[in-house]
Design a protein that fits this description.
The complex is a heterotrimer of chains A (about 425), B (about 290) and C (about 300). Chain A is about 45% helix and about 15% strand. Chain A contains 16 helices and 15 strands. In chain A, strand 1, helix 2 and strand 2 form a beta-alpha-beta unit. In chain A, helix 8 packs across helix 9, helix 13 runs antiparallel to helix 14 and helix 15 runs antiparallel to helix 16. The longest helix of chain A is centred in the first third of the chain and has 27 residues. In chain C, helix 12 runs antiparallel to helix 13. Helix content of chain C is about 65%, strand content about 5%. Chain C has one domain: MetI-like fold. The chains are: A alpha+beta (about 425), B mainly alpha (about 290), C mainly alpha (about 300). Chains in contact: A-B, A-C, B-C.
Amino acid sequence: MKSGLKMSKVLSMLIVITMLASLVMTGCSKSTGEKDNSSKAEVQQDKKVTLTFFGLGQLKNEMEYFKSTIQKFKSQNPNVEFEETYANDADLNTKMNVAFAGGSAPDIIYTSISSTISRAANNQLEPLDGYMSQWGGKDKFLERNLQLGTYKSKLYAIGLRADPRVLLYRKDFFKEVGLDPEKPPKTWEEFADYAVKLTKKENGQVVRGGADIPTTNGSLFLAPFIFQNGGKIADEDNDKLTINSPEAIEALKYVADLYKKGVSVVHDGNKLDELPFVKGKSAMSFTNLNSYITMTTNDPTLKDKIGFSASLERKSKAAQSGLICLSITKDSKYKKEASNFLSLMLSDDETWSRYQTMGVIPIKSSLQDKFISDNPKVNQVLSDSVKVGITRPRTSWGAVYMNYEKAAYEAVVVGNTSAEESLATLEKNLNKAIQK
Amino acid sequence: MKSTKKNKGYYLISVIMLISSVIMLIPLIMAFFTSLKPLSEIQTNATTILPKEWMWSNYAEAMKEGNWLRYMYNTAFVTTITVVVSLVINSMAGYALARIPFKGREILFFTALLGMMIPPQVTMIPTFLMLKRMPLVGGNDIFGMGGSGLMNTYMGLILPYIAGSFGVFLCRQFYINFPDSLDDAAKIDGCSRIRAYFQIYIPLSKPVLATLAVIKASGTWSEYLWPLVITNKDYMKTVQIALPAFKQETGTIWNLLMAATIVTCLPLLILFIFAQKYFIEGIVTTGIKG
Amino acid sequence: MLRSINLSEDTKPKLKVKVKCNRQRTEKVGYLLLLPFYSFYFLFILLPVTAVLFFSFTNYDFYKTMNWVGLKNYANLFQDDIFAKSVWNTLRYGMMTVVPQMIFGLAVAIALNGNIAFKKFCRSAFYTPYIFSMVAVSMIWMWMYDPSYGFINSFLSAIGIAPKQWLFDARYAMNAITVMSVWKVIGYNMVIYLSGLQSIPSYLYEAAVVDGANSWQRFTKITLPMLAPTTFFLFVTAVINTFKVFDAVNVMTNGGPMDSTTTMVHQIYNKAFMEFKMGYSCSMAVVMLIIISAITLANMKYGNQGNDLDIG
């Protein structure tokens, strides 16, 4: 049929046009043909080198600091090109996973300690002990910092930014109920006692909490109490879970009892910017410096009304400490250049500069005194907190563990399960999971 | 729902729908008010509804965070190409599956649905590897090694979208409803299937094509995971992956985030309003009296 | 597909739908028209799905390890309590969202198809939630649900109902997410139903009116049956989207409280991206594929006659 032929001609033209359009789009692509590391040969000192950097970009001034320091490094090392990718925690994790799976892993990563350690456990990172001499030697760094970056006795991460949680409290609320505003609680008993005194209720609802005890995602709140009581969540050297212990049971009971007294406004422990304390709805909170900055930026009159304290103490001190660290990946073809970059980042000058521009606690032991004298009220507390900092368990099962731990907390604190039963279940579930 | 007396029914339903519409919009109205507040009002006291100060400047400020003109362009380009190509190939495929008998038709149809049934979180890994290792593009040699393939390209963004089977499914269901007598009459007239498609079915397809365009555009515009994975460079970002920049560690910058979110949704809303006349003025009007 | 509409003087239209495929003729032009789409589909979707199937039989750790482990992942799945919980949560979520969204969508489409005032505004109002990303919508609703400062509790207190803890309470969290999800997709259902309504020939209604049928009869005997393909489409896509629910859970509750909101994709994501158990995660995805296929096939066989909905 003539008309039939004509129509199928039109149709085939349509198909061809579609295909052509696709080809044209390839021409529009702006790919620069990034070099894939996995096919590069051995590199000499003078050859053009491209370092790929994946870093957390959730803090504007930190991102800008990295960008300017990378520029500095590039001018000192003209043969080195840098490709930087910044993203928030979840997105960065996704991108890193895809990059590692696709054979284009970055050379240097800057991310949270839990993400770093889980990658170390998955054999994706390079041990850094051997590079320490280039960076000044282990004793130049805060001991605790190096400990926290260690997995199975090897150093994998250098904590660049420690983010400890401290006890913030409202001096004005303290005065209101007759407590001494210069005497924050030091023991568990005091903390519970003050929390009850500081709570304000109306019609059975808490309108001002005495303290922020999370309703969900309370693991980071609970952990320091376990350590303060002499317990440990994990035996890292043997990769074992040790939370099912009398010390942890006692800590969990303490938190649950206090929560059930109704001293807290309902909230999510992971959402630090939504804490009741930040909204002016509670009197005490274990949180980081950002909360203080947010509150005083929005209402400068609060500067004198907020007090700081390091951790509580029972058998020892402990404070939850977030840690963002630098690492070098195992697959990197430019470990030497990466190490040079880290050398610059870890120098005394750069470390002090980070403090000045971002308020980051210096991780070099030599700079501690200078740091504390710069702002004694706040920095002494921060320095103490870092020294007794704890992180999430640095084990091969860290990621699996988090969900079980979250459920165990909720079952006891909000639900009606006993602490013994809950921790026993947690142990059983985890061991079952890691056996597979 | 329907009333036989025109006046009563008309007013009653109009009022009910108007009230329902406003209720539907409440969360978005709240987002809009949030976009006009100063940050301090949101961070320290979350109970106010109306902003104390109407800070229209938030919108300008939000757009300064990053290269928004570029992100909009990228997203618009990718969406447009995706929608245009999808309209062509999906309606052809849907027509074939609905009107033309051929062996294996039902199996091919069901297999086309399979792709929608697996979460993108896992399929994106093999897809990523495939696009990254595509031979002879983006600096790759013939084995697909050495370069970055289709990463950071428009092709890389578009290809998985036009492979989606949603449109095929939609068109097939639409074409199924046409009476057999239409095809019989065409056959008697000596019309080939393809000619019937162009001369009979396409002119009657305005509702489904408008629907497909609107929904496919919304879907492509809202894509997050795939652009995140296939692009690394700032100039290739889409609007969705540019939004998290407002979630800082010090706290989410809610007002700017809401402002930027609203700006990113406006093009789709305009598209919908524009496409509406194809929903109203279908070729056949319905007879449901209201 | 065999379907006939009686075009003669007989004014009561009869609809016959047979699902059996007509294997007597094969017009090759069908393959030709299918080819452009299917080429893209095969390359960029079918092949990756096959890869996922392959991964599910390995211990792929998202990096370099990939060894064949046969059915080990699937065996472990059956003993995974949290996965079982996530399947149950997902099904529960599905039951609460699929039918309501379709019913509301149909009701709104019919109401906004007739000749009422502000039609364009209302349609846009219902559709707008759909064009916001799930992430943005989740954040907005998270605020609204906040037990202390949220709009919902303030509103409830004002009318004398006790405030609830919504996303923090294991009894309400899933329901809270459900309400938000249905709100978001009513517009989508409306749009598809509107387009379906457009294709119903008006002479059918005119003939029925002449025949003395009232509005309810016109609805049940003409509208609903003619909408059967649309309804099938919406049902299948709603089921598929139900199973894929992730952003809402991830943003609002992260699977809690007490695992009451964890869904299958949430588990799949955690296992792959946080624990690097990609092989195991893919086996979960395959199980999900099987469940959805089964539901879809069942509906293809038994539900295609339409009239599944009973609007009282």
